[in-house]
Protein: Elongation factor 1 alpha-like protein
Amino acid sequence: MAALSVAEPTKKSKNLNVVEEYEKTNPKKSASFVVIGHVDHGKSTLMGRLLFDLKVVDQRTLDKLRKEADAIGKSSFALAWVMDETKEERARGVTVDFATNYFETDATKFTILDAPGHRDFIPNMIAGASQADFAVLVIDSSTNSFESGLKGQTKEHALLVRSMGVQQLIIAINKMDLAEWAEDRFTEIQQQMSAFLVAAGFQAQNITFVPLAGLTGENVVNPVPKDKAAWYTGPTLVSALDGARATTRAMEKPLRLSINDIFRGGVINPLSISGRIDQGTLQAGDAIVAQPAGETASIKRIEVASQEVDWAVAGQIVILHLTDIDPIHLRHGDIVCHLSSPITTITEFNAKVLAFEHLLPGFVDVHRGPLHVSGKIKGLVATLDKSSGEIAKKKPRIVQPGQVARVSVEMEKGMSLEEGMRIVLRSEGRTIGAGLLE
Ligand SMILES: Nc1nc2c(ncn2[C@@H]2O[C@H](COP(=O)(O)OP(=O)(O)OP(=O)(O)O)[C@@H](O)[C@H]2O)c(=O)[nH]1
Structure:
């Protein structure tokens, strides 16, 4: 008698044309963004306000947070805690996902990547920015705050997301209540920021400025009343978010999904992974390989936003339940590909990077998403013009902070990388540069 197999049979693929299936659904646009800005400029409060006014968070939750905040004499923090609250909620649920928040408007499904308020903000921000379609830069407009932010993280964050390939910015000029909704204050900040951002390589038409107040809510979801700011006729934050250009969904490209989380040992789903599909499509029954582990598996079931689905496309964050896999070698940060078109694993590359500190040939850690490998900058190929990308100077001896340069890098071990991927160079725990693989 044949031995009984305890393994569940591999699910048969329906062999769908996923791109066609997707088009049939007449899909809503979807977009993801990071929230950046100097400490205390109001990032968390603004996102809390947005989620509350869009009714993602209900009055009861906010009342509860208000009570807790009042109890420690910090009533204004209730809105800022909304993001943490939704995170915790999710952590208690079954479909634990990374620290993101979802919301929808009539036009768009949004993902807020990298909820602000993390202690270790820069590395998180880099990870978030490397997946973002655009960034919301929050600036405190009140007296002296904008100015001190400029010396602090306002510029640094803007440069950082630019170097990670983010091209669109929404500038939330916040705390306008404290600036008494003064038009000249808004204009002053807008002019200074525009000059800086254009010099940093953003195109003026890709930057939208919105005056608002996260704490009191004007111009976030609801327009500012005319008696407060008759001079402003532009969009609210939500309409600016809706107006952001649609994601270029790289659906036709080979599947690439960076593993964000691995869940082992469930009874129904012994091995599941989550992550965002950066490009390509997938469907139940697909044969996949995680690189560089080289671990193969079959997709048994797919979940998107807690719903079981037959397929998923670039831009979606998915949970994949896998079979036929030996999970030992799977790692956070591995890239899931179709078995038929795996990503290459390389040990050398050229990259276009923005320097945060002086760059010289020498040792660096190369980070891609959550993974990193030791390596070295072999050579400084050229410095580049920030806006045109043309060569400014060949073989510089050193690259200054703020400059963009092409560098050649060698790694001690292979990493799965390909053109267009975003990498970060760190040395002694500090980010010294970030950019794109060429
Ligand atoms: N008056 C006024 N105060 C605000 C506004 N938005 C935020 N604040 C206050 O500014 C302080 C900082 O707000 P947070 O939302 O914690 O700032 P953050 O940028 O998220 O701070 P970190 O996460 O620590 O970087 C809090 O006391 C808020 O209540 C606003 O629109 N008006």
In short: The pocket of guanosine-5'-triphosphate is lined by residues 37, 39-45, 76, 80, 116-117, 174-175, 177-178, 213-215 (CB under 6 Å). The longest strand covers residues 371-384. Residues 1-9, 89-100, 115-120 have pLDDT under 50 and may be disordered.
